[in-house]
Amino acid sequence: MSELIGNQRKEALKEILRRLHAGEPPEALVKEFKEKIGNVAPVEIAQVEQELVREGIPREEIRRLCEVHLALFRESLEEEEPLAPPWHPIHVLMAEHRHMTEAGRKLLEVAKRLPESRREFEEIFEKLLETESHYLREENVLFPYLEKHGITEPPQVMWMEHDQIRAIKKAIKSALERGDKAQLVELSQGLLEAMMSHFYKENKVLFPTALDVIGSDEWPAVRKEFDEIGYCCITPPPMPKEGETEAGLGVREGEIELPTGRLTVEELVGILNTIPVDITFVDRNDTVRYFNESKDRIFVRTKAVLGRKVQNCHPQKSVHIVERILDDFKNKRRDVAEFWINFAGKFVYIRYFPVWSPEGEYLGVIEVTQDVTRIKELEGEKRLLDEV
Fold it and tell me: How far is CA 4 from CA 10, 15, 43, 150, in A?
């Protein structure tokens, strides 16, 4: 796999990592990293880390300094999480990560109310114990497939972290038997931190690497083996039949697979630009990511706005209101913010909606702006059969 990385680039990256292991702080190397390397792909991280192990750096040292590596690469990795259809093993694993993280948060919250909350603590902890199948699927199916494609050390490092999580759970079980509240709070905090750190590494490095090196024709076999072990947290949809989508339609080259159908990029752009509303999407990091180009756009949008923080798109006097709306959305205190104004002879209806994934993860905000002048004037009925 090393041929995927130019030798000079690879050696520069390895040298920076060696200096990290020697004790240089990541912040001191960020500038040099950007100049010499620029952005780094997850598969490159996986390949270089395993080469360092082969050259003599202990695997435990790689695991211990994974967080330091990620501190250096974080900006490169802060992209959208890898996309895969709902039946796909990677989609399933990431969905389980979200459920397990939420359970970990609840466990810590309930631990602080012990001993009164003991029964609730036991119920949540039991659910976390039942997630063992998640780790078994990775260790017995995903990791072997990665190893077949030359990715050997990263799975071993992740397996070590699985065992770390298991050890914390074992310690929680022991502390629960003793009724040691202080230790239960401490261990619950440690479990949450260990899971969040581990899941971030898998979501941002291991899983994108898997999608990069494992062929599309292999994933159905991976899914079948996942099915044999079983699942936790969620029940994934069935795998589509060969040559079909979930809707039973033939797969066409160049299409985007959606939960309720398939569209080409051309079709999708056409649909979004034909809808008689102005649409702007702001992602989970408050960054403007997209706007449609409807025929009669009400407010001006230029491509220069893409990548800009939404707070910078509003006058300073109203930024605190924007922040409050975003905070309310992210914390599920409201599901819409709406305004209506008179603008350029039109009655304009402006609405903001939080966007959530099927698993309940906050994805961002969509702004929908519509000229409702004519809609306000409508009366009576006009049916399809009235069309002449």
Answer: 9, 18, 9, 12
Please state whether 366 falls in left (phi above 0), alpha (psi between -120 and 50) or beta: beta
On the 0-12 / 13-18 / 19+ scale of CB atoms within 10 A, 388 is exposed
* N residues, the chain: 388
Mean pLDDT in residue range 350-364: 93
Q: What percent of the chain has pLDDT over 90?
A: 55
Cβ-contact 294, 277 below 8 angstroms: yes
Q: Residues 6 or more apart from 133 whose CB is under 8 A from it? A: 229, 230, 231, 232
Three-state SS letters, 329-364 = HHCCCCCCEEEEEEECCEEEEEEEEEEECCCCCEEE
The pairing of beta strand 278-283 with beta strand 261-264: unpaired
Q: Residues 41, 151: contact at Cβ < 8 Å?
A: no
Give backbone dihedrals phi and psi of 122, rounded to 5 degrees, phi first. Answer: -60, -40
Between strands 255-258 and 261-264, the pairing is: antiparallel
Output DSSP code: residue 239. P
Helices and strands, counts by H and E, the chain: 16, 7
CA-based nearest residue to 377, from 342, 347, 350:
347
DSSP assignment string, 220-234 = HHHHHHHHHH--SS-
Which one, of 358, 356, 357, 338, lies nearest residue 348 by Cα?
338
Query: Is the model more confident about 199 or about 15?
Result: 199
- pTM here is 0.53
Q: In 3-state terms, what secondary structure has residue 1?
A: coil
How far is it, in rounded angstroms, from Cα 366 to Cα 354? 6
Q: Is 261 left (phi over 0), alpha (psi -120 to 50) or beta?
A: left
Say which residues have a Cβ less than 8 Å from residue 312's Cβ, sequence separation at least 6. none
Output DSSP code: residue 386. Answer: G
Query: What residue ranges define each of the domains in the chain, with the CATH number in brackets?
Result: 2-77 (no CATH), 89-229 (1.20.120.520), 263-377 (3.30.450.20)
Lowest mean pLDDT among 240-249, 267-276, 300-309: 240-249
Greatest CA span in the chain, whole angstroms? Answer: 81
